[in-house]
């Protein structure tokens, strides 16, 4: 009977591993087929993600429609969130939830009121620390939108910094092959996903609508405060004014960006060394000393040569 149970367990895990193997093969084949279909039919394989984002924005808009009733009050109570600050945050975050400045200001007050009522509910239910929640919950509700939108801004700029070198190398290679800048951008961004793709897709749309190229570049600068990205766009503007080859601009910027990232990694490594020393000094070393001292004391009290054996 025991042998049968062991065989059943082995067969179960074998089937699980077999399932995972075939499932991984299915995902790989699916990714390959989507890529081939997009190449043949010129269909964007990331279009579904954009639809999911817009659907999420619609759901969020329905849920927060009550925040519109508090927009006037929210624009008056604008601690740490004045209108020009909110407008800048929404622009630099890509505004994935399609918020307006007025709705954002109303959302703060709406969540503050929700936090106040949840605090009253905790008092009625008699939960521990409910008297503090009556004050703490409204404050949290007020600052949640501010913290989330600022975190989204930081996350988006970090994604741009991470994807920018590969993007610039790919565009530089396409330009050196004789492809124009607009066509190179249209082709390259199809293989990227995230803020880089969003920004240059919008740039191409503005160019198609007849917006002057320099103005489209300026709009890119307004929507992003990443230093490396701004350096690239400013170099493109300068190259356009001075007639410098664009391919050379992308190549030089990619090399400089990689050097900057290497220096940043070295700087982080140098900063990590004192932290490790601090942890070793104040945590590991005292614990090690206590363990050694404890063993010495135990040996003195309970070992063969303990002090009690002397009497």
TrEMBL record:
Could you tell me which residue ranges the Type II secretion system protein GspF domain spans? 167-292
The record's subcellular location field reads:
Cell membrane
Q: Which UniProt keywords apply?
A: Cell membrane, Membrane, Transmembrane, Transmembrane helix
Q: Where are the transmembrane segments?
A: 6-27, 107-126, 132-149, 276-302
Membrane topology, from the record? Multi-pass membrane protein
InterPro entries cross-referenced by the UniProt entry? T2SS_GspF_dom
Q: Which GO terms describe its cellular component?
A: plasma membrane
Which named protein is this?
Answer: Type II secretion system protein GspF domain-containing protein
């Amino acid at each position: 009977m025991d042998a049968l149970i062991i065989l059943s367990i082995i067969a179960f895990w074998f089937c699980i591993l077999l399932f995972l193997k075939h499932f991984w093969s299915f995902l790989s084949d699916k990714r390959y087929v989507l890529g081939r279909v997009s190449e043949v039919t010129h269909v964007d394989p990331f279009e579904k993600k954009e639809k999911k984002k817009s659907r999420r924005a619609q759901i969020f808009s329905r849920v927060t429609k009550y925040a519109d009733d508090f927009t006037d009050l929210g624009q008056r109570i604008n601690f740490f969130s004045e209108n020009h600050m909110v407008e800048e945050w929404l622009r630099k975050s890509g505004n994935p939830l399609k918020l307006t400045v007025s709705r954002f200001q109303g959302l703060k007050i709406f969540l503050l009121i929700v936090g106040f009522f949840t605090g009253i509910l905790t008092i009625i239910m008699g939960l521990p620390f409910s008297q503090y929640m009556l004050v703490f919950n409204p404050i949290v509700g007020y600052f949640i939108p501010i913290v989330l939108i600022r975190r989204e801004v930081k996350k988006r700029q970090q994604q741009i910094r991470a994807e920018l070198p590969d993007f610039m190398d790919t565009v530089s290679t396409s330009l050196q092959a004789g492809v124009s800048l607009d066509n190179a951008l249209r082709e390259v961004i199809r293989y990227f996903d995230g803020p880089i793709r969003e920004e240059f897709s919008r740039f191409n749309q503005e160019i198609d609508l007849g917006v002057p190229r320099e103005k489209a570049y300026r709009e890119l600068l307004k929507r992003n405060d990443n230093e490396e990205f701004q350096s690239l766009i400013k170099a493109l503007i300068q190259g356009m004014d001075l007639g410098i080859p664009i391919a050379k601009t992308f190549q030089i910027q990619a090399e400089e960006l990689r050097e900057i990232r290497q220096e940043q990694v070295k700087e982080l490594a140098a900063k990590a060394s004192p932290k490790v020393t601090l942890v070793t000094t104040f945590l590991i070393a005292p614990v090690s000393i206590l363990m050694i001292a404890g063993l010495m004391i135990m040996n003195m009290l309970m070992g063969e040569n303990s002090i009690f054996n002397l009497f």
